[in-house]
Amino acid sequence: MNILLIGSGGREHALAWKLAQSPLIGAFYAAPGNPGIAEHAELVDINIDDHAAVIAFCKANAVDFVVVGPEAPLVAGLSDALRAVGLTVFGPSAAAAQLEGSKGFTKDVCARFNIPTGAYQRFNNAPKAKAYVRQQGAPIVIKADGLAAGKGVTVAMTLDEALSAIDDCFEGAFGAAGAEVVVEAFLDGEEASFFCLCDGKTLLPLATAQDHKRVGDGDTGPNTGGMGAYSPAPVMTPDMVERTLREIIEPTMRGMAELGRPFSGVFFAGLMITEKGPELIEYNVRFGDPECQVLMMRLKSDLLPLLHACASGTLDKVSAEWHDDPALTVVLASKGYPGSFTRNTQIAAVPAASDEAKVFHAGTAVKDGQLIATGGRVLNATARGKTVAEAQAKAYALARQVEWDNGFSRSDIGWQAIAREKPSES
Ligand code: AMP
Ligand code: GLY
What we know:
The protein is of the alpha+beta class and 426 residues long. The chain has 13 helices and 23 strands.
C-alpha cells in the first residue's frame, strides 16, 4: 500500500515510525514532513493547503491511502477533497471536524445528545457574555469558539479575569476564532485524555494519556502546547473507560451520524474526571501531540491496518494489542518557549533509537547539512518502562544524550503518576 502522511510534527514522526514498521507498506511519502520523518518516508514539497496539488501528487504516485495528522487541514476539508476523487483517507470530513473546529458546536452536540459536560452559553457579543458571567460568578471558563492553536481558553479564577478574557476574544486576540465565545462552568477534578478510533458505526478504544501543559516544574508558569505526557492515565480505571465509552463517545458517534455528519477518524476526548464521573472538556479530531508519541510507543499491533480499517469502515474486523508497560515523553523546547526564543540553533547530536526508546522530531530542519531547531517544541524523548518511574528515567537518560545548547525540558514529567506508584508511607 502506498501512503502519504500529512503533517510535520512530533505526532507525525511517531505515526511515521510505526507505519514504516508495517509489512504492508509500499512507497511512503510525507508532506511536508521533518528530518525525523525523513528517516522513514520520502519528503515531498507540496502545499497541503492546495487540495488540487495534493490530489495531483496522489494520482501521479499511485498513493492508495492518505493519513492526515493535524487538525487544520481536516477543518479545511482536505479529507473531503481527497475522498471525492476516490482516495481512502484517515481523518474526518470538515463537517465532522467541527467537533474540534467549533467549541460551541460540540457543546450543542453534548446538550442535544445528553453527553455530560459543563453547563454553557454561546455569545456573539461582549455585553451579553459579561452579564452572564456576572450572574454565574467565578471560577468560570471563557473559550474562543474556533481553532486558536490551544491558546483560546481562559480558566478564570476571578470575575475580573473572566471579564478581560471576554474583551480579549471580542477585541480579536484570537482572530476569527474569537468572534464567538463559549462561557462554560468550571469543572473540578483530574484531567485525562482518551483516544478511540471510529469509522462512523464502530468504535475501537485505543488508550488513555495525561499531559503536562504548564512550562515549569510542579505544573507552574504559562500554558504551552504540552511539555510531556504519559500513557496510560492511572485515573482512567477500567470502570472510567467503560463509562466514558457509554456516556460520552458512543452517544457522540450516534449523534454525529444522526446529524448527517458521520465521524470517521480518531476521537481525542479531553475529560475531567469529577465526583460525578467523566465529563467532556473538549474533543479533538486527531491524535494528541505529544500524546501520540507515547501511544505509538505502547502499541504492539501494526498501526497501518488499524488506520486503514478506520478509514474504510471495517473497524469491526480489527483489534489492537498494547504493551501494558507505561510510556512517557519529555519535550525538549527552545530556551524562552512559550515566550520568544532564538530560532535556527544547532543540534549537534540526537541519540539512536531502540524498540523502547526514541527521540521524535517536532520543530527541526536540516540546513547546510546541520540539524537545527526551528520551533518552540523541538524534540520528544520518549521511552517505555516497567513502571512510570522507569519510563521516566529512560526518557530523561535519552534526553540527556541530545546535544543542544539552546534546549531545555521540565525535570518532573509524570510526577503525579510516579507519586501514585510509590508504596504508601502510612
Ligand atoms: P481546551 O483547549 O479546551 O483543552 O482547554 C485547555 C485547558 O483548560 C484544559 O486542558 C483544562 O485544563 C482547562 N479547561 C477547559 N475547560 C475547562 C472547564 N470547563 N473546567 C475546568 N478546566 C477547564
Ligand atoms: N497535547 C494536546 C493536543 O494535542 O491538543
